[in-house]
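Need the bound structure for 5'-deoxyadenosine, inputs here:
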Amino acid sequence: MRYMKNQNRDNLSPLDFVQETHKIKAGGMTPKCPRVYVRTFGCQMNEHDSERLRDMFVQRGYALTERVEDADVIIFNTCSVRKHAEDRVYGKVGTLGKLKAKTPGLIIGIIGCMAEAQKDEIFRRLPIVDFLCGPADLDKVPDIIDKIRNGAGHIMYLEGYKSKRIPEFIRDRRIVSNTYVKIMEGCDNFCSYCIVPYVRGRERSRPSREILEEIKSLIAKGAKNITLLGQNVNSYGKGLKEKNNFIELLRKIDKIIPSPLPSPLWGEGRVRGEIKINFLTSHPKDASQELFKAMRDLKSISKVMHLPIQSGSDKILKKMNRKYTVKKYKKLVKDFRKTVEGGTITTDIIVGFPGETLKDFNDTLKIVREIEFDAAYIFKYSPRPFTKASKFKDDVPLKEKERRHRLLLEIQKKISLSKT
Ligand code: 5AD
Ligand code: SF4
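Answer from helper R.:
Posting the output first, comments after.
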């Protein structure tokens, strides 16, 4: 990495920027600092976890690299929501055998949901892997690496999700205009197809004071789009000592977004509305008219609602343990569109869930045509360990899942195009 005194730092990539910032603080990086490569699979939660992890490494004097060939430590932050995501990691890590053999001291780790779900199966299939670490313990990763350097052999750091630990606040976040803030971790919903509660654990929320502090510091560093993350943001606040809920939190956040008057506190020329707060994901059983009103009234809150429907058949929704009906979902959409003028609705859909007949699938097609989502993320059902649905017969053949997937994608594509 080169650093020239007069270089325009705005032109640096986020990766370079974070390295430069730390070099300056440390008074110049040591020429031989170890290099870490972090690759992310899966959702925004994982993207965010990787972002935190990179910051932790940089604070410990590591440099970041985007090439496995240059790395001293290679980390895959993984996803278990569908089997395909796990297969990709097995494939990718499987290709690193030669590199490991010719690079003395190279450390390879698999972290995140798949580490938790697959456990020592990973060591069996990929003996080149040195350590595993679950999503609730990512702050332990740099220490795990130190232990391996000191000859500890294979390390597994799993099942941290059983504790009530709340994700820690990072004080030295990378400066990027689009960034995430975790407001809660885990999920208590136990949708019958979903592995998340088993790998990320039960729901726990961060105190609002911490969230506000983090948002303020990100804005002061130039963040423009901040996405609040949680598996089910609508149930934010459960179990906290303070009395709080998601709508209350949105109100508190909106209050700290810079006012139109230039203020030395926020930097010159900032106007209210310039900074947008998004949130992911909402569960239809907990979304309410009160939330829609908050989206309408609070200027900094974005008008995008991601509201996964999963299926258009009540029979399948019940088997999925989603706790709402198609009628209730349709009413929510109607209320949202009436209340939040110019709002956008996106969704997730699973095709080929056990017992999904042609009639059930046609009901999904019908609701997709009727609602006209702005975007839909469509997935083929994939049986996942620990889940209730993994005990159901996976009776829709792969070819048929693919056909339903294709058909829905085509229909949604036309709808999305007609809206742009
Ligand atoms: N198979 C297919 N899709 C799934 N999802 C979650 N679990 C599974 C599974 N076992 C989808 C859901 C969820 C999105 C993040 O992933 O649609 O909303
Ligand atoms: Fe999984 Fe359902 Fe929780 Fe979403 S709400 S993370 S789909 S269990």
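Comments: DSSP finds 15 helices and 14 strands in the chain. The pocket of iron/sulfur cluster (ligand 2) is lined by residues 187, 189-191, 194, 196-197, 231-232, 283 (CB under 6 Å).
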